[in-house]
Amino acid sequence: MTAWADHLSTRWFVVAASSRVAARPLGVTLLDRPIVLARMTDGRIVAFDDRCPHRLVPLSDGRIVAGGLQCAYHGWTFDGAGRCTAIPGLAPSADLPAVRLRSMRTIERDGLVWLRLAGGVDGVSNGATAGDQADDQADDQADDQADDQADDQAGLPAYVTRLSPGNRRFLWETSWSTRTVDALENFLDPLHTHLLHPGLVRRHDRRDAVVATVVQSAGALTIDYAGAAAQRGLLYRLFESPRILERAHFSPAAAGSAQIEYRYRNGSAVYFTLHFAPQHATTTRLHATLHVEGRWAPAWAMRAFVWPFLRRVAAQDRSMVERQTANASRFGRHDGLSTGLDLAHPALDAAWRPGATVPADGTRVVALDL
Ligand code: FES
Ligand SMILES: [Fe+2]
User: What is the rounded CA–CA span in Å between residue 19 and residue 62?
Assistant: First the structure.
């Protein structure tokens, strides 16, 4: 098991595309925890520990029936709150065991299922010990607080909640054999693009003076790049027009997600958002979305023309970051040497490394040769 930073269990992660939680339950893993996602007959998605309290088989092998989620082995059935509602063969006069599956809070929005491990919907688990019950009470308190936030999109960052499903052009999912934080830093780091994606994103031999403004506020990060209205790579020349804004976003509330926002002189905007979710220490699930606002860009055209290029860039990133994670593991350490050019590193480090300090709020202006 990995030594994850405690606070990660209170953060939101994208664990599945909505479309994959359909008639059958789906097993996913987040921070080493096996979880079953099930769409109940009322359409709601619920999440439980992926084990039946009877003989501990995976509930994700089960099915959805009128009474809820039914285990594949003996048919114990659980409602949306995780209560056992039926045991086939049990005499009608016999009591059902007072078990409750440990549940987790989910949000379904814009084609994605978000999940947070701590602060379950209800906190009582099967065979709970006194310690567990204390945890459960803490969970319940956390729930109350979370309920207060529910009106506020349950604490998802604004750069996620502003995305409109109607503007989503594609949703892509895959797995990378990397540490999540390495993958996130790669996405937020422009300085590798000249060497790793030569000609596609930028060119090593043609750099421009760019000013990056890094704003750190309550753990959240934005980085504005000024001076790069145009970019020299093929992707820009084929699909973009002069920019008025290029901004990167990261918030520890959704600790595996980050976004690059591009705004253009013609009033349009493009949002490229990557959602990484750590399954284990060095395996990461990725859901990527591209949203386009205010310009002609039908999904079929994006798939036909943009997607092959982005796919190539993603393959180059994946290969490098997998090499990084694997090689760092050979040396048993992941702490590299950073300079002021590693703009996102302090915020990512604080979000992911146990015991790391959160960088002070403030604004930093950094000159880069991009
Ligand atoms: S193991 Fe699930 S019902 Fe028996
Ligand atoms: Fe890259």
Answer: 18
